Amino acid sequence: SLASTAITCFTRGLDLRKGTEDVLCPANCPLWQFYVFGDGVYASLSSVCGAAIHSGVITNTGGAVRVQTLPGQENYPAVNANGIQSQVLSRWASSFSVTAGAQSTALEAVGRSVSTARPSTGKRPKKTLDKKAGNKDCKADIAFLIDGSYNIGQRRFNLQKNFVGKVAVMLGIGTEGPHVGVVQASEHPKIEFYLKNFTATKEVLFAIKELGFRGGNSNTGKALKYTAQKFFSLENGARKGIPKIIVVFLDGWPSDDLEEAGIVAREFGVNVFIVSVAKPTTEELGMVQDIGFVDKAVCRNNGFFSYQMPTWFGTTKYVKPLVQKLCSHEQMLCSKTCYNSVNIGFLIDGSSSIGESNFRLVLEFVSNVAKAFEISDIGSKVAAVQFTYDQRTEFGFTDFVTKDKVLSAIRGIHYMSGGTATGDAISFTTRNVFGPVKDGPNKNFLVVLTDGQSYDDVRGPAAAAQKAGITVFSVGVAWAPLDDLKDMASEPRESHTFFTREFTGLEQMVPDIIRGICKDFLDSKQ
């Protein structure tokens, strides 16, 4: 009988070559990482082992599976089965089904060396179409900051290029996968190519091969700072909402200081990894400016962001663990900036003294503050409550997860008109709007907008909100008493209290509110 081919957790139907193929799935694949489309008949984009578990042919202990290629179809359904949620796909060029494989062939396969199924290089368009997309599970924009100093020398420089090439291959570069660029550190940094220049592994490998050795001092600090500031602009190909990563390769030790560069990188929301090769020996340590250079430069000094290899020889076994780190986007702690990691609740006075046209100016102010933030399901979130004596949640934090939808929801708020009970409204918002997100990752802010005296006590409810971890900014217009505004605001009250005589004055306050939120966010992270 045909022997089975051992495959990986991520081998897809379209990576197999034959019409019918017997494969062996490994044990303990992480269920949440599977991409599966359909039910019973799966789009060839699906993970083979994922589909086999989904359809009940095997469990997560692995086993033999027979894969049958089928024609493409329309409307692959999403079904939750055996711990895997399959996804909808409207159309795909080919499909497959899975049945239990013969156990005898599986046992033969175990005795042989495990060969992973190689993606076919067949010239069929569907293959290239998907190869172009790359590994969608790995969300990263990466700058490889390579060592081009006299420390490393020409020979080890070439070994470094080989290693970077292997990492690039394993990352699965593609239009929807990771994007990479290279910067060479020597006396002066040089950006060799940007994220936008290549989106196919082949092109990246060619570009790495062509890199020339520059030589000079290893001014890694200078290069790191330069890369953090210049490399990740949108026009150079950085993508919104994708973690920015710099992988610094260091042979020996840097000639300059890394501490300031590390601070700059963190301010810019960049995750710095350091791969150190041939760490300084005890005798050499006397020549190193700062023995703790790795800890100062990395994103967080928690062990995750530093990586060591003894030499540039035999580095293949170090490729996969490094790639796994670069692809675990939930670990990229430095990606969190004030723009993408806050919840902002707006508490809007709808009392009759405001009037319809001024109410529109209030909504414009709310829109302009919200606009500055990166609103998404993984980013910042916005909610709005309007109050008179009553409160009305216009929308909560999870109702709209794109900026456009949030802005159109703000535009659609209808003016209530009525009395003013600000204290009750703060309590209502703390409980009903912030309650559901209080254990979430984002920092919570409440912006209270009012034009007058509250009929109830504001100090108690505001103190309770602050105790629940919500930072309060108070914005008063016209007849709003300064004492009320100060009583509501978080400490230091001066920088959290705003006032304008006219509604038209709200516009000038927008940048100050945004800056205030960002300052509080950064202070909370220290």
From TrEMBL:
Tagged with keyword Protein biosynthesis: no
Residue span, VWFA domain: 141-326, 343-513
Keyword Disulfide bond in record: yes
Subcellular locations according to the entry: Secreted
One Pfam family matching this protein: VWA
A GO biological process held by the record: sensory perception of sound
Record keywords: Disulfide bond, Glycoprotein, Repeat, Secreted, Signal
All copies of domain LCCL, residue ranges: 3-96
Chain spans, region Disordered: 113-132
PROSITE patterns attached to this UniProt entry: LCCL (PS50820), VWFA (PS50234)
Entry GO CC: extracellular region
Main location (coarse class): secreted
InterPro entries recorded: ECM_Assembly_Org, LCCL, LCCL_sf, VWF_A, vWFA_dom_sf
Signal peptide location: none
Function: Plays a role in the control of cell shape and motility in the trabecular meshwork.
Protein name: Cochlin
Primary gene name: Coch
